[in-house]
Specification:
- Helix content is 29%, strand content 43%.
- The protein is of the alpha+beta class.
- The chain has one domain.
- Strand 1 and strand 2 form a beta hairpin.
- The longest helix is centred in the C-terminal third of the chain and has 13 residues.
- The model has no long low-confidence stretch (mean pLDDT 76).
Length: 72
């Protein structure tokens, strides 16, 4: 499996790193351009699933949790 990292505030004291697993890559060709759509799932959630736990996260809750994390 391949991973992707999303870094917020890179190089600053508040730097945050989120790791995701790439689940699916879809390529689309339009004229001379190649566009790729990447579907990912959170690495932490994947690890929770391996040990028998599962966590569902809606986009709204994700952004709320990220905002709370940035406050700390």
């Amino acid at each position: 499996m391949r991973k992707i990292k999303v870094i917020f505030n890179k190089g600053e004291p508040q730097e945050q790193v989120f790791e995701f697993l790439i689940v699916d890559v879809t390529e689309e060709h339009a004229s001379d351009a190649l566009n790729c759509s990447v579907t990912c799932e959170g690495l932490a959630f994947n690890e929770l699933g391996k040990i028998g736990y599962q966590y569902s996260l809606s986009p709204e809750i994700f952004y709320e949790e990220v905002e709370e994390w940035f406050k700390t």
